[in-house]
């Protein structure tokens, strides 16, 4: 089975851009890497709307199925999944007050090798169709953090812009593989004391912290 890396986060948190960047870097290192795109977006594009409450579970299961199928292919070293059922469970709770998808989504996430949660330091950008507001993004982030921490599932928060964000993710993947995958010298990755937001579920707090410290290239590992 391939190493499975999932990227979590609400809308406009850079999941897709990071997923594509990671695939490019990993392939350049000689690792056969496959990208699993966000099924929810594909579904919305096909249907011209967001899923209704009774359609959410099927969308979540298809995201999991596509990722599992790719990971089982012979010769694939790494699978980078642009979201997971947890994101759909968060949307289901937010829009429909439906908490029923969390259990199955968390059970699937528990089998994932590496969970990367996108930080809230990127500016929210409207896309004219799918994205609602920064408030929705923050609410999804808070719900995902809450459930990951309550379930005792380890995750790492990824911050920064462009190459900085990619390097953080590459270091996390490299730790799983026991090799250095970064393209630049690591910064502030050893000897750190945990910062106060490591276990914080308040997205506004994290946003304020990283808005002020982004230029110093701080990184954060979240361990529930």
Automatic annotation (TrEMBL):
Tell me one Pfam family matched here: AAA_28
- Look up the domain of life of the source: Bacteria
Locate the transmembrane regions by residue number. Answer: none
Segments forming domain NadR/Ttd14 AAA: 5-165
Which InterPro entries does this UniProt record tie to the protein? NAD_biosynth-regulator, NadR/Ttd14_AAA_dom, P-loop_NTPase
Query: What name does this protein carry?
Result: NadR/Ttd14 AAA domain-containing protein
């Amino acid at each position: 089975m391939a190493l499975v890396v999932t990227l979590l986060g609400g809308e406009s948190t850079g999941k897709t851009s990071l997923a594509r960047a990671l695939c490019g870097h990993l392939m350049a290192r000689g690792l056969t890497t496959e990208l699993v795109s966000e099924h929810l977006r594909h579904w919305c594009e096909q249907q011209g709307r967001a899923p209704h409450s009774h359609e959410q579970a099927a969308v979540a299961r298809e995201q999991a199925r596509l990722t599992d199928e790719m990971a089982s292919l012979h010769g694939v070293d790494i699978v980078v999944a642009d979201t997971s059922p947890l994101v759909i469970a968060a949307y289901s709770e937010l829009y429909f007050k439906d908490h029923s998808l969390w259990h199955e989504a968390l059970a699937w996430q528990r089998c994932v090798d590496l969970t990367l949660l996108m930080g809230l330091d990127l500016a929210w950008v409207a896309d004219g169709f799918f994205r609602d507001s920064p408030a929705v993004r923050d609410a999804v982030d808070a719900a995902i953090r809450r459930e990951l921490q309550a379930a005792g599932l380890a995750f790492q928060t990824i911050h920064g812009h462009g190459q900085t964000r990619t390097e953080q993710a590459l270091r996390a993947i490299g730790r799983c593989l026991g090799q250095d995958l970064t393209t630049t010298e690591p910064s502030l990755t050893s000897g750190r004391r945990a910062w106060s937001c490591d276990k914080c579920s308040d997205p506004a707090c994290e946003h304020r912290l990283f808005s002020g410290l982004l230029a110093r290239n701080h990184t954060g590992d979240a361990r529930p």
